[in-house]
Amino acid sequence: MAGWHMAKVRVRPETGHLYIDFSLRGVRCREQTALDDTPANRKAVEALARKIDKAIATGNFDYAAFFPNSPRAKRAAEAESALPPPSGSGQPVPTFSEAAQAWYRENLPRWRTSHAQTLQAIIEKRLLPHFGEQPLYTITRAEILDFRSRTQTSSGRKNKDDLSPSRVNHIMTALRMILADAADRYGIDSAFRNIKPLRVPKMDIQPFTLDEVGRITAAVRPDYRPYLVTRFFTGLRTGEINGLEWKHVDFDADVIRVRQSIVNGVLLDTKTEGSARDVPMVPTVRTALLEQKGLVPAGCRWVFPAPGGGPLSLVNFTNRVWIPLLRHLDLAPRRPYQTRHTAATLMLASGENPEWVARVLGHASTEMLFRVYSRYVPNLTRNDGRAFTGLVTGQGAESSMAVLPPSLAALSRAQLERLVRTLHQEAPHADA
């Protein structure tokens, strides 16, 4: 039932007797025993506590059956009888588990495989263990907020103590949609009301400068140089480049056709519809891919295979190649995903149209570009005031190059001009 938490067996200090502490419909309940705190007695009371949990979770808790002499038993029975009919539609209101299964089953045809698998994991690993067999009408707003709090402090991936706000919001979104669907279907009110998502901190990006890119690609092992060159100058996501097959590399059109991604060793559709795109091969990338073609065994489907022949493993690459390489070059440690941020900042700094950059990166719009990268490239917003100064002095904004932020400070004028020529040379633009 709503508002309940797992029953705890506690000991009263003044008597040394055991008691059961639980909550029902948001009301804390304490039922005393005359048993001393001994291992045998504690084991027996803990068994009773587990039975209480199960009965409450399945909606079959009868206070009088568990505690016939408790003064709370009569009040609990009166509260049960005063409950309004659970469904305005006249249909029996199902448990949360049944509602979740119905919602998932009916929406599955419109979801991409990767999204469906993510939702399935959220339901099975997060939502069902907490809400499971509770009747829908017993779930309260207070319990939802309590669930969010517990979820945020639960162990996440990579043994982190807390889940990120973004991850918690994804879990809560699934819960909200299930409850909203059930509310429409059964004519009940959803308890998920006026619950705003957690505040998500701004994305921490640490792109490399063009000089650092050159140092990295020059120092990496030769068999991984084409891989890093391709990452740095296409902006492909990790799953996209690790799951890239030769059939999607079109040397005639000079494009990489992004159609799939590999996640946890499973080949899936791209993240979103916008992620399925054609990424232009600048000459540097074309040269790297032709070099890679000669490095892989004949008949290998993967562009960047692991030594065993399967797709490249991010964990192995990170631990055995990437981290030692950055340490060797005395560069600040960061994830390989920063190669994507590097590609974005270099494209924007070179003067490319933000809409074209968004399409190349697989974004649905330029919103993320302006939100995430504008502080690295002042020309996106002209927030350095140089354009206005040029206007009022009659010199024009083009008479001097905008000051670059610290992350791109290593780009000299000559380097930036070379980058512009590289990105434009032989690169098919969407405008052409």
UniProtKB/TrEMBL annotation:
CDD domains reported for this sequence: INT_ICEBs1_C_like (cd01189)
Domain Tyr recombinase: 203-386
Name of the molecule in the record: Integrase
Domain Core-binding (CB): 94-183
Gene3D superfamilies found in the cross-reference section: 1.10.150.130, Intergrase catalytic core (1.10.443.10)
Family as reported in the entry's similarity comment: Belongs to the 'phage' integrase family.
Keywords: DNA integration, DNA recombination, DNA-binding
Magnesium is among the record's keywords: no
PANTHER family on file: PROPHAGE INTEGRASE, PROPHAGE INTEGRASE INTS-RELATED
